[in-house]
Description:
Elements: H1 2-32, H2 36-49, H3 58-70, H4 74-85, H5 92-105, H6 108-115, H7 118-121
Amino acid sequence: xxxxxxxxxxxxxxxxxxxxxxxxxxxxxxxxxxxxxxxxxxxxxxxxxxxxxxxxxxxxxxxxxxxxxxxxxxxxxxxxxxxxxxxxxxxxxxxxxxxxxxxxxxxxxxxxxxxxxxxxxxxxxx
Length: 126
C-alpha cells in the first residue's frame, strides 16, 4: 500500500514538472515568433498560478514582461517586475523598465523608491 501511495505521489510531481516545462516551451515558442498576445496568458499562468521562481527562471520573467508590454497588459508587467525586483537576478535594465512603468501607471512613490535603490545608485550607467 505504501509503495502504491509513493508511486502515485511521484507520478503526480513528475506530471506537474513535465506540464510546466511544456507550458514554458509553448510560451517561449510564441514569444520567439513575436506572437506576444498568445504568449502572455501562458506566461501569466506560469508566473501567477504555477508560481515559478524568479531566481531560477529569470529569463522567463523577462520574456513575460516584454510579452505583457507588447500586448498592453501593463498590470501584469508591473506584477512581473515587482516579483523580479526582489530576486537575486534583478538587473539595472529591469529596474529601469520597472521605474518607467511605475511612472506610466502613476505609482510615483514606487518610482521614487526604485530611483533611490542601490541597484540604480551603484550603477555606472547613470
